[in-house]
Amino acid sequence: MVALDFRRPAAVEQLKTLAERQNVAFGTGEEAIAEAARLSCDVVILDTAGRLHVDAELMEELKGLKGRVRVTETLLVADSMTGQEAVKVGEAFGKEVGIDGVVLTKLDGDARGGAALSLRVATGQQIRFAGTGEKPDDLEGSAQLR
């Protein structure tokens, strides 16, 4: 796992704690991506800054990253409680950055269905993973969601 979110306070520490709990290698910055390649890692997850709304500066940052790093898949992680804001975010990400799927979190909450349908329509992509809790084991893959 590579932490690339240096904007949100404690984002790096939070991801590091999660990586340690899951016994997964962890690094920060683009140099960690190069180290993962050197070590022949099969999968490298890049955790970028979160976007609750469309932010042109952060979108440019993401496009630049995708231009520098070979990316196999780009997944938009969205909170199911965002409601109709999910449409704006999904459309913007699809247009500006390009996404291959959606990870929808907090489906165990009260406002679960609207964002899922909105994101599916706005992005044209399937919900690849759905979170029904706060732990990694609470993520359900799309094969189970069909």
Model description:
Helices cover 41% and strands 16% of the residues. The model has no long low-confidence stretch (mean pLDDT 85). Helix 4 (85-96) packs parallel to helix 5 (113-123). The protein is α/β, with parallel strands linked by helices. The protein folds into two domains: 1-50, no CATH class; 67-146, Rossmann fold. The chain is built from six helices and seven strands. The two termini are 28 Å apart. Helix 1 links the parallel strand 1 and strand 2. 17% of the residues are buried. The chain is globular, with a radius of gyration of 15 Å. The strands form two sheets. Strands 4-5-6-7 form a four-stranded mixed β-sheet. It has a three-stranded parallel β-sheet with strand order 2-1-3, with helices on both faces.
**Can you identify the CATH class of the largest domain?**
Alpha Beta
Q: The biggest beta sheet, please?
A: 4 strands, mixed
- Within the largest sheet, what's the order of strands? 4-5-6-7
Measured by DSSP, the beta-strand proportion falls in 15-25%
Shape: globular
What CATH architecture label of the largest domain applies? Answer: 3-Layer(aba) Sandwich
How many runs of DSSP E, i.e. beta strands? 7
Helical residue percent band: 40-55%
Uncertain regions: pLDDT < 50 for 5+ in a row?
none
The structural domain count equals: 2
Whole-number average pLDDT? 85
**Secondary-structure element order, as H and E?**
EHEHEHEHEHEEH
Number of helices: 6
